[in-house]
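A.,

Following up on our hallway conversation. Structure tokens first:
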């Protein structure tokens, strides 16, 4: 019995040099557990730490696990932040409306950029409407982090008031399309002075997923063909109520109007892209818009 007590004391007080081998540490640990058992002592509890292969490789502990949680959370936040919801509304002004009322409409729409849900918002007259079926005159382009933010923006009292007091009295027609870009990259806010080409596509009825994928791929591939495009977003409309049957949407962002106009000289490339999808389409809307250098910030 005295021998056992001596073994226990020696194992609990001796500081083993770091240079001793892992095998000897394991043997001492086994002797300690065996001696405690012989003495009737409790053997439950955490096992002795397993020797490390390198002193810079700590054992996995609770503290170490907690250390990695913020990194995982950061990654998930970063991924969600890359999602953008696009919201585009096209307006057709009444033919005889007073120009000052159209300016008031644009100014009050631009004031909605102050709402918490809005990531980016810009509204104003179009440079041109290239569509033969419609005669739109104005646009609102805005961005949100989630569909829920877009819904909250739409229901916000300030938005409802602006639409009721400044938009509906001066327009004959409205078209709205919403989508989440399939591969968003670049800044969430469109810089002032930029130029946009907005395109909506209406697919022929009874097209399959394969044909739809071909259209999305062709539209998404135009950025490689036209280096003047700073940013391109492409996606499927998820709000069919006011989209007039158009289901594929894209926005090409250019540095300015000059870069957008330069696109006109590349007709051969443009026609090449059109040929890829024209047999699948039943309608096209294309409008150009220049983001004003400054935005109105108050009602």
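Then the amino acids I'd put at each of the 299 positions:
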């Amino acid at each position: 019995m005295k021998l056992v007590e001596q073994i226990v004391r020696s194992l609990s007080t001796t500081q083993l040099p770091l240079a001793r081998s892992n095998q000897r540490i394991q043997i001492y640990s086994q002797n300690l557990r065996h001696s405690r058992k012989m003495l009737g002592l409790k053997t439950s509890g955490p096992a002795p730490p397993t020797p490390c292969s390198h002193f810079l490789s700590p054992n996995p502990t609770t503290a170490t696990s907690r250390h990695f949680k913020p990194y995982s959370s950061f990654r998930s936040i970063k991924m969600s932040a890359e999602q953008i919801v696009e919201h585009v509304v096209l307006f057709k002004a009444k033919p005889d409306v007073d120009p000052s009322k159209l300016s008031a409409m644009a100014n009050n729409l631009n004031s909605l950029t102050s709402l918490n849900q809005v990531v980016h918002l810009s509204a104003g007259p179009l440079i041109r409407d290239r569509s033969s079926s419609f005669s739109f005159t104005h646009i609102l382009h805005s961005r949100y982090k989630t569909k829920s933010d877009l819904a909250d923006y739409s229901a916000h009292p300030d938005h409802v008031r602006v639409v009721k007091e400044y938009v509906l009295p001066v327009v004959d027609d409205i078209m709205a399309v919403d989508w989440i870009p399939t591969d968003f990259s670049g800044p969430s806010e469109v810089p002032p002075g930029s130029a946009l080409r907005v395109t909506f596509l209406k697919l022929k009825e009874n097209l399959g997923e394969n044909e739809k994928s071909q259209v999305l791929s062709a539209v998404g591939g135009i950025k490689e063909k036209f280096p003047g495009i700073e940013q391109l977003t492409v996606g499927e409309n998820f709000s069919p109520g006011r989209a007039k049957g158009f289901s594929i949407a894209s926005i090409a962002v250019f540095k300015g109007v000059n870069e957008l106009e330069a696109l006109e000289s590349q007709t051969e490339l443009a026609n090449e892209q059109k040929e890829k999808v024209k047999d699948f389409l039943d309608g096209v809307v294309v409008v150009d818009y220049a983001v004003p250098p400054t935005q109105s910030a108050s009602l």
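Confidence is low (pLDDT under 50) at residues 1-25, 46-81. Curious whether your intuition agrees with the design.

B.
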